[in-house]
Amino acid sequence: MVFSDNIFLFFFLPLVLLCDRLCPKAHRNAVLLLFSLVFYAWGEPVYVLLMLLVIVLNYAAGRLLERFSAEHAAGARRGVLVLAVVLNLAILGVFKYTGFFMGLVRDLTHGSFSIPEIVLPIGISFYIFQSMSYVIDVYRGDAPVQRSILSFGTYVALFPQLIAGPIVRYGDIAEQLERRRESRALFAGGVRHFLYGLAKKVLLANQMGLVADRLLLGESGTLSAWAGLIAYSLQIYFDFSGYSDMAIGLGRMFGFRFLKNFDFPYISQSITEFWRRWHISLSTWFREYVYIPLGGNRRGLARQCLNLLIVWMLTGLWHGASMNFVLWGLYYALLLIVEKLFFGKLLARLPRLLRHAITLLLVALGWGIFYFTDFAALGTFFARLFSLTADTAGARIWMLGYLPIGLFAAVASTNVGAGLLKRLRSGGAAWLELLWLALLLVLCMAAMVSQSYNPFIYFRF
Predict the structure, then answer these.
(1) In sequence order, what are the residues at sequence separation of 6 or more whose Cβ sits closer than 8 angstroms to the Cβ of residue 62?
(2) So which residues are the catalytic ones?
(3) Looking at 161, 180, 199, which one is the last position of a domain?
(4) What is the pLDDT of residues 440-451, one digit of tens each?
């Protein structure tokens, strides 16, 4: 089940909101957990058992860490932490990376053995990372132990952010799990956030996806290659930020306040700034649980470069079991090392517009690496980017037909619209935003009825 689905919007969501409001407060987490498991089982009923295993594993680890809280049990606490992390990573590795690593071994050894086909459970990277952050934070003393397995299960399986994030740290919503404070203003804000996210996904991401698939995979010339790359850059932003906005909005409807996951990354003026604004929950996770424990920037230049390489190789692998994602991660590691350590001061002296243009160019080229899992196709595409070959008449017609919505999407990816809406609210013209939201809802409903193309890119991660 996906958020941009009529069954979700007109049946599942109203039903779960009704049950959540009608049931006693003491049982609301149990109701949310039940509906969250149904939500997940709608597409993958077998893998609900895997999620329940992850819930039990990490709940037990948290309780054991609480039991071994005395100073003389420090060794036992470390053992529980290591075992929990290893088991979580083993589950993730088996289901996500078995085929990848066995393929590498077969290629390196020129073997002829078969590779098992394991279906990737939707959202496994998100809920595994979320569960590990709980155990690590409990070990560090940064989060309280959850003694109710129903409440802990609700935290892991909560359907608004279950299958594509954001990654929510337990400490950020621990109190909300026990005492949610709803209000009309919070609920209304959640509905507004959800509708904007839905419009991003249905009206912009899907349209840009059609353009990207047509132009990136075609055999036309240089202009269509760049147009396809720009379209894909917009698609992946609106797809993922739209889902995150819907998740944040749904969370508010149920009394949860999730942190922002995107902050207009395409207005960035450096790669460092871009990654402070893009998929903030994942960047924070790797910084808190990998980069800083490795030593961060505290052990000299060479060690900092090594830490960045490790973090970004893992970030690439997190996105997918394919060498193009590893290459994508190393690409950003190189950019950040060069930017942070060598050209940061030079970059700061350049005009703002030039810094912005350089950043967008580098990010777009990175999305080209991200898109193509086949290296031969990747090489062919990059040759098209820089070959200065002419486009066919059909490609030019296709690009011109989608130019208006492409320009609108480019503007919508900046903070211009958000600034306008803020002025409307503060200026007493909030009713104009209500009309705008009503129009977006009508357009989304019409698009959902007529569109057959409705992928979520980040579901495969």
Answers:
(1) 134, 135, 138, 145, 146, 152
(2) 319
(3) 180
(4) 888 888 888 776
